[in-house]
Structures are given as C-alpha cells and as structure tokens.
Target: Heavy metal transporter
Amino acid sequence: MTEQSFSVDGLKCEGCVETVTNALTALPPVRAVDIDLKANGTSTVRISTDVELTRDEVQAALKTGGDFSVVG
Model:
C-alpha cells in the first residue's frame, strides 16, 4: 500500500470533506482518505492506495463531486 498527498483548493467545510472523501474512495485502488481542512486556503488530502494515482485521476474524481482543484 502507498500513501500519496495532494494539495486541493475549494474545500470550505466538513460537507466538502465528506464529498471529496466519497469521490476518492469510489476509485477502486483507494483504501482510505484523510483530509486536513483549511477552509480559507489549500487543504491537504492524503490517499492510501494499492497503486499510485496520477494527479489527473484525482482531479477527475474531484470534479464529479464539486468545484475542487488539485494544485501544485
């Protein structure tokens, strides 16, 4: 298992955290998601997976849940 971290903009509340968590855990290789919410900045999203995900795969999953963007 591997852990990856992504910086994500657009998370404003615990509802956003739940939305992003659900969107990412829907991806087959994802085992767990942990988010450090920064409502007025860039949040850190850590994903535990069986295989590494690309930035584009994470971004595509986030777009299904709302206006969230992987930065950096």
